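Predict structure. Chain length: 130.
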Amino acid sequence: MDPNAQDSEQQQQLYYPPHIVANQSRIYSTKFLTSCFAGAAAGILGLENFRGFALFVFATLLSSALLWSRCKGLPKNHLPGGWVELVNPGQENLSSFLLAWTLFYGIVHGETIQPISPLQADGDANQVYD
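Prediction complete.
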């Protein structure tokens, strides 16, 4: 039997499943809220294209660094994936970021549609009344 495989099995036995579930749930919630707040900030600031995605990457790395410090530099002791689990933003968090970004961008920077006045509806569509 391979000694590395034996070490891997012993490492897996050290994890207590309820604690792993609680840790992953807390990390998921932190990443979700981080992506939503980053999306809201990108929308309010009016960031477009790569600047908005740069804010998402920055927010993800910052939250990962804070979670890493919360694990006292040893995320492998708290999660089976280790630091990769901390840095991975997840597809659903990217979607949450995009939804919050477009929502807040539309609210803050969107143009309003002017209603058509009754005089304009009855008259010539190309003529503007003041």
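Summary: The helical segments are 3-13, 17-45, 50-70, 83-87, 91-109, 118-122.
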